Amino acid sequence: MSRFSVGGMIELEGLTKRYGEKVAVNNLTFTVRPGIVTGFLGPNGAGKSTTMRMVLGLDHPTVGDVRIDGKHYDQLKDPLTYIGALLEAKAWHGGRSAFNHLLCLAQSNGIPRSRVRQVLETVGLTAVAKKKTKGFSMGMGQRLGIAGALLGDPRILMFDEPVNGLDPEGIHWIRNLMKSLAAQGRTVFVSSHLMSEMALTADHLVVIGQGRLLADTSMADFIERNSRSYVRIRTPQRERLLDVLHTAGTTAVESGDGTLEVDGSKAEQIGELAARHGIVLHELSPQQASLEEAFMQLTAESVEYHAHADTPRREQRQVQQSWGNEWRRS
Amino acid sequence: MAATQVVRSEWTKIRSVASTVWTLSLAVVVTIALGMLISGLSANEFDNMSERDRLSFDPTFISFAGMSLGQLALIVFGVLVVSNEYSTGMIRTSLAAVPRRGTFLASKIAVATGLALVVGLATSFVTFFLGQAMLGEHRAEIGDPGVLRAVIGGGLYMALIAMFSMGVAAMLRSPMLSLGILMPFFFLVSNILGNVSATEKIGRYLPDQAGSKIMQVVTPVDDETPYGPWGGLGIMVLWVIAALVGGYVTLRKRDA
User: Fold this and answer.
1) With 90 as the cut, is the pLDDT of residue B197 above it?
2) Of A213-227, A273-287, B199-213, the least confident
3) Is B100 contained in some domain?
4) Other Cβ atoms closer than 10 A to B243
5) Mind listing the pLDDT tens digit for each residue in A157-189?
6) Does position A326 have pLDDT exceeding 70, yes or no?
7) What is the dihedral of CA B165, B170, B171, B176, to 10 degrees?
8) Closest-approach residue (CA) in chain B for A18
9) Could you give the strand order of the β-sheet that contains A212-218, starting from the edge strand earlier in sequence?
């Protein structure tokens, strides 16, 4: 049973933010629900941080609306007890100690002082609680930001690129933290520009590019649709091979450039089958469409800052493959 | 959201950064030390003064001479209290915790002004008594007509200068820009405008010139200032209100 039976919804409706001519967020409509981790995915500059700032009422939407449980952010009484947020970069005074930073936040929302010690313990900063935050490493800074988000024990948590700057141990910790928060029935809304990261943590996926909504789907659906593995075959004896495959109960699909694609079979099996029937094969290669590739394809047209065109294509693909495979291994 | 919560939070903020301590201590030390120095020099100078200057001799006002420099430290205090939020990125955290921007700004200004007032009043009294001690036989007594008003007025003046700086900083956001405008204005521009006869009439309506009238006990000979001590402080209060309204409108309208 979840701890929170009602509430915890973030609803965006036609949310739009323009800076002069430039449209940073373009007519976004979607709902973030409790009990799951919702990944907010998009290339750098897609408008993720701007959207999150509008959720918190920091930036004013040009058009549209965003509500938390039906209310505007500034209508929430003690907002930190409804929604806790980790914002991008550091958002505190470096001359103040971690303890005092959290204490002033707690006091403004009527949260007891004892809770400050509790969250410092949770994020593992107790030992440096009295130290000025300007000496903090990036990872410690992220932990302090997360402590601030947890402070009000809110039912909604919003993290903007939380794994940035964390070491592997820290990344592992934040992944588990997000999952356990969602398992408690809370709403977890987390942004990232890395598909592989989302594949590991998110149950639901909202993809944006250049401020526009590109996908709003469950992670399972996204994987099913986008991560198929298949065998690609080229042969001068297409008809015969198709017959043989058909007899063996395997369906082959003809792809555009005259090759055949077979889903769900091993290349070895097809090779042996072809050899038994004396069919010549010019190509027999196992293929895998990675999630990262699917994401790149989805956002390709909307990527604002393209890498240089002369970057070796193959290298890119290899990197993508290994990223895409990561979610399978773990 | 209860305003008392936000006030408590702003108090934690202001007491937990080093700049509060050093700006306020600097204001205290400079005001008192310079006031004593000038009081001492004036006492020595008295015998050589013309009859006219002797008639205008204002021992109370002389002991507050250090405020012309001490106020600069208070300006830094006021500017940093507000603009540090922006320069450090804290403003995003602060407004996420207190989304009612009016409540946020009012609490911050109330806390900082309260602190400046306490420090200002203490400084004012100490400056007066030490300055009078330096003036020796030419000194004024706290019981003399208008003197207590001037001494309390000195504290009010310091608090108002800090408030004015906070309003300007809320409009401009950047600490460097705010200081770059306020410091030369109060240290140079205002003095020049107030002492050149062509601009004197305008100069006397500037916040510091008008406000410092409250610290005057003896009206100088041939003085044509059209307002009294409280009138002058009133003019300063109008400037402060204008700056704070400007700051509030900016905070209200702009993205954090």
Assistant:
1) no
2) A213-227
3) yes
4) 21
5) 999 999 887 889 999 999 999 999 999 999 999
6) no
7) 70
8) B255
9) A83-86, A156-160, A187-192, A37-41, A204-209, A212-218
pLDDT band at A327 (very low <50, low <70, confident <90, very high): very low
Query: Are B95 and A97 inside 8 Å of each other by CB?
Result: no
In a mutagenesis test of the B interface, which of A51, A62, A93, A157 is the best target, namely the one with the most B β-carbons within 10 Å? A93
Nearest to A84 by CA among A200, A178, A218: A178
Q: What is the ipTM score, two decimals?
A: 0.92
* Rounded percentage of chain B residues whose pLDDT exceeds 90: 84
Interface test with B, best of A16, A96, A104, A116 (most B CBs within 10 A): A104
CB contact (8 A) between residue B90 and residue A92: yes
Rg (CA), chain B: 19
Model confidence pLDDT, tens digit, residues A103-130: 999 999 999 999 999 999 999 999 999 9
Please give the tally of structural domains in chain B.
Answer: 1
Q: Counting beta carbons within 10 angstroms of the beta carbon of residue B213, is it exposed (0 to 12), middle (13 to 18) or buried (19 or more)?
A: buried
Q: Do A58 and B255 touch (CB under 8 A)?
A: yes
Q: What is the dihedral of CA A304, A309, A313, A318, to 10 degrees?
A: -40
B80 lies in some domain? yes
**Is the CB of A108 less than 8 angstroms away from the CB of B98?**
yes
| Closest Cβ opposite residue B96 in set A56, A97, A107 | A56
H-only helix segments in chain B: 3-15, 18-45, 51-56, 59-63, 67-88, 90-97, 101-135, 147-172, 175-184, 190-195, 200-203, 207-211, 229-253
Structure tokens that stand for B221 in this block: 């000979």
pLDDT at position A322 is 38
The residue range of the domain holding B125 is 12-253
Whether A124 and chain B come into contact, CB under 8 Å, resolves to no
Dihedral of the alpha carbons of B125, B129, B131, B135, in degrees to the nearest 10:
150
User: Chain B closest CA to A147's CA: distance in Å?
Assistant: 12
Residue B84 lies in a domain: yes
Both structure tokens of A244: 């043989």
- At A187, give phi and psi (nearest 5°): -90, 125
**% residues pLDDT > 70 (chain A):** 88
Mark out chain B residues that contact chain A at CB-CB < 8 A. 1-2, 5-6, 8-10, 12-13, 16-19, 84-85, 88-100, 255-256
Q: Is A211 left (phi over 0), alpha (psi -120 to 50) or beta?
A: left
B2 domain-assigned: no
Task: Pick A73's closest partner by Cβ from B13, B94, B99.
Answer: B99
Question: Which carries the bigger pLDDT value, residue A302 or residue B70?
Answer: B70
Distance from CA of B76 to the nearest CA of A (A): 16
Helix (H) or strand (E) holding A143: helix A138-150
Give the amino acid at B240: V
Q: Which amino acid, A13?
A: E
Report the half-sphere exposure of A181 (CA within 13 A, side-chain side).
31
Q: Residue A313: which pLDDT band, with cuts at 50, 70 and 90?
A: very low
**A90 has a chain B CB within 8 A of its CB:** yes
Question: Are B16 and A79 a contacting pair at CB < 8 A?
Answer: no
pLDDT at position A3 over 80: no
